[in-house]
Amino acid sequence: MGGFALKNNLIAHWSFDEGKGNLIREHCTGREDNIHYVFNEAKYKPSSDPLWVKGVKGNALLFDGYSTWVSAPSDTRSFKSMTIECWVAPRSYEHGDGGRLSAIINQHDRETKTGFVLGMFRHGWWSFQIGTGDAWYEVWSEADPIPRDTWSHVAAVFDGVKGNLVLLLNGKQVALRSIPSEMEIKPAPVELLVGKNNKPSVLHGVFTTNMFNGIIDELCLYDAALSVEEIEARGVRVPENQPDTVQRRSRYDGDRHRPQYHFIPPEHWMNEPHGPMYFNGQYHIFYQHNPQGPYWNQIHWGHAVSPDMLRWRDVPFALSPEKGDIDPDGIWSGGTAVDDDGVPVIFYAAGNKRRNPDQSVAMARSTFGQDGNNDLVDWIKHPEYVAVLPEGVGLPGNFRDPFVWKEEKTWYMIVTSGIPGKGGTALLYTSEDMIDWTYRNPIYVGDSQKYPKTGDAWELPLLFPFYKTEKGEQKHIFIVNPWFLQASPHYCKYIFYWIGTWDRDRLVFIPDEEEPQVFDVGEHWIGPSGFVDPSGRIILFSVIFAMSPRISNELGWSYNAGLPVEVGMRPDGRPGVKPIVELETLRGRKLIELSDLPLDKANERLREIEGDMLEIELELEPGEAERFGIKVRVSPDEMEETLLFYDRANASFMADRNKSSMEPDVEKGIEGGPVDLEGGNLQLHIYLDKSMIESYINGIKSLTTRIFPFRHDAQGLKLLGDASTVVKSLTIWEMKSAYEDCQEGKMDI
């Protein structure tokens, strides 16, 4: 078929050359089609255009994977022949919810066996599917997947006369299926969509899946069947320029709620950070990440590097789910270590739903020894699991989050699970080479009957040397995250710890006290990970939830890490927690500094101070006040406000969020817990970062929470107490973004 015939048979062409706006021209009809995008009419930030980038020719549209698609009127014709061609550069692969494709283009209804769909599936597999009204036919390419982050020319051909379905990648045939001849595609009575499946799965009633994530350019639809030879003869040439598939932090500019100096992925979903390490002059953090959208699914190991644990620079995913027998269904949490040759190693929970149990421990080794890349961009997975749940041990389906360390010549690994009828546990393994591991025993078993908040199973275990007694006895701290097999009011609220003795001879941890303790008295500081930094500090990371699916969908992101904190034994013999001192480097302008003032005089000085990115150091001498502290994010009429206060009667520090927001579906209520001030003043160290509030109380405990004020003017501050309360000291700084000087980096390989 020559160029003239191609032109005559072209029935739809989207060049994506607009480069701006939310309308796109279909050139055959001159029609302008709508580009749907979450921020076309944004609720929590200034509205902004969909994501435009340079294409193979002119411009192209970057589909974000969950909110971007093009809608066009339904085509009511039947097709005896059809060819679809376009350029694509996917950024990630979906899980394939409902067994449906992440559509590139479609107008189909699989249930009525009508229409057509061209799209991608897990691991880059792709397919062209058509319906004749009586039957549904599919052709697949699994051996030749569409690669990520590079340009690929894809073509799909239906020849109803000959009875063929063909797929071509970069001009070469990669799949062929014969079907009955003299067939035609019957039209489906639905819209024609680009980038979104006509029949998507919906998660949590909000998130649409089966959507394309990446760049589409020069999309053409013909009512003719181009032959393989004709397509090959056209000389499809892959461009030398690399597609711009970078995840963009800038798309959230002006977001009222997105933290600016907490760690947060460049886009979409994260749950817990994990595997923090210091290697060759810089810090690394990994995290559970879904690059497709702001919801949990098809989890990857996101990765960022930093000189100071604050100013993070995004680097490519460390690990992604891959076809095969190791981790096709997810790369879940784990830890890092440096092997005996000085090479970083990752241990992680590998998801494979074809196995029972579906979780095992896998390993990947950095290529640093070969390439010297200090960002540790590339990792090679070990071809086999290094540990599986022993038969008859633990809770099947709960075997994850390995934590690894070395003492003398032996490597130790704990992997969390549970003991039926008892409680959570961490199963201990030993090895001499990091590859061959021997199961030993549970290191410690919880008591969920006596302490129901500790859960049926555990996650994310940590074990560190904590302090030495006066007699020189080494004490350790053992930290876990609870997990529940059924719905629980305690789900995703706490991190627990015990201090005690790590008995290396018996391979058990013996707590000094049976009752578990918390560092954070709120209900949002969860997902612990940690390491010992080069100076000997125990640094903990966490994740902060408290976001509804509705608000995550409208914001375009879900969750962030808590501030890095240092935990240790205080001079008074009590465990304590405090923010890392490096946070001082993010201080901006000092807004106020005062001391030894009555409460009313101090509040007069505070009237002109406002902000949603602040550091506050406050010491109050309470006098006779029963409740004392500070209100933050206060609107001028006090219709919105969040109270952070000490309750003398209950010896507890509390956060009252009942008036934090006029939004109808955000979390509210009062949270907090015991903090013993031992009769002293209240010393607060508070960080406000958009939706985040972190309070550190006398260096003993913290309270971490999240708010979503509705009003833009909820920026004020007001001290709490009574006429007898004295403000011993108050200093407030503006805080700078940790990302101002960080370039947007590629998040995919």
TrEMBL record:
GO molecular function, one term: beta-fructofuranosidase activity
GO biological process, alphabetically ordered: carbohydrate metabolic process
Residues making up the signal peptide according to the UniProt record: none
Enzyme Commission (EC) number: 3.2.1.26
InterPro entries tied to this protein: ConA-like_dom_sf, GH32_Enzymes, Glyco_hydro_32, Glyco_hydro_32_C, Glyco_hydro_32_N, Glyco_hydro_beta-prop_sf, LamG-like
Gene3D superfamilies (UniProt xref): 2.60.120.200, Exo-inulinase, domain 1 (2.60.120.560), Glycosyl hydrolase domain, family 43 (2.115.10.20)
Keywords of this entry: Disulfide bond, Glycosidase, Hydrolase, Signal
Domain LamG-like jellyroll fold: 80-229
CDD domains, sorted: GH32_FFase
Protein family per UniProt: Belongs to the glycosyl hydrolase 32 family.
Name of this protein: beta-fructofuranosidase
Annotated source species: Cohnella herbarum
